[in-house]
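Researcher: Next entry in the queue.
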Amino acid sequence: MKTLPFLLALTLLTCPAGTSANERPPNVVLIMADDLGYHDLSGYGHPSIKTPVLDRLAAEGVKLTSFYAGATVCTPSRMALLTGAYPARLGWTRGVVGYMMKQGEGLSPEALTMAEVFKAAGYSTGIFGKWHLGDNPGMRPHEQGFDTTYYINKSNNQTKDLWKDDKVVTSPFNNRLLTEKFTTQAIEFINTRREKPFFLYLPYTAPHFPLEAHPDWKGRSQFGVYGDVVEEMDHRIGQLLKALDQHRLRQNTIVIFLSDNGPEPMTRESKADPFRGRKWSALEGGTRVPCFIRYPGTIGKNRESDALIAAIDLLPTLAQACGIDLSKLSRGTPVIDGVNVWPTLADSKDSPHPREDLLFWHGGDGFQAIRVGKWKFFPNRRHAGLKDSAGAALFDLESDPGEKVDLSARHPDRVNAMRRLAEHRLVEIKKNMVALGKAK
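Model: Structure for this entry, 440 residues:
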């Protein structure tokens, strides 16, 4: 149950701050792949996988090359994306729902989700895909702000149940058909909710293992089953974008694409080149992911930005773009760690980029690193895969994106400053955090 102060805070959001009474705010379509590596799209350098739809979507907006998922594994990454908060602020310490986290734990019902923010502002809200934020009553998507739901509650290797609202509608589901089914349901949502603003969250299960190609896509790529799965997802996203065009919604819809973390270690076909590390790791390969955003007429075409931007920034950024005033939130809700990067996305020359630093989380061990500007610091060099001696590690990501050359001995003052900043951030998070949701 949401608390009374929480509900009162939501009522303050129902009048978008940046729009007039007769002006319709933009729709939002938030698409997330599962375990897609930085290198796994043709537009990010893959030589064999062909993703023309996503490449065109990136060219129609801004392509982000220093974008970071909310964490390096599924559950905390989704917590961060939907709340704008570091996962540690939401009580997370390790693992995912169904693995390493305790039975019955998930996203706290007290946490304010992006869906609740948009719903309170008059939007229709829908999720079609993977939830992975809690199985139990109080932690399901229809109780966390989504009007329309069609989802699996964990990863596709952890469950065989397909849910709609509070009921299992298919068991066992056919893993080969999930990308198609989620897209079909998302398009139906657009068809039926197009007359008012909508927030559509499409967290695909692809290309998370087990890798099983759709019958119509088996063997079509030049990169085996993994390529088949990614290329089908690209095609399905094209179908969804076509639906927006058919209803003349392209100009008034913000479309975002990202991945939830880096490549799954067991899925060897997936790559994070030129970065080192994979899913679970706080190295760049575990958390730097593809991301691009299209909003015709507001975000210019054919742009790239290497500004430091994170998934936690999307909530305050989209709120700004849609005229929603987050400053009216109750103090009883978790702190938002994200910052509004809308001026950067819109290529404004009048506003400096607001994000200067970012904390990094290992999927099983919590905090491991901090980035400030081009510098990334690991207090424990072993967490960076450097086992030759004790101490810290410092990398210049601009000249060394693979995090191979430790510069800590050359820059002791920078090491000390970044260590102090990380400690300060962690102390503040611990003082202002909520507990994980727990089954009653």
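Model: The radius of gyration is 20 Å.
Researcher: Noted, moving on.
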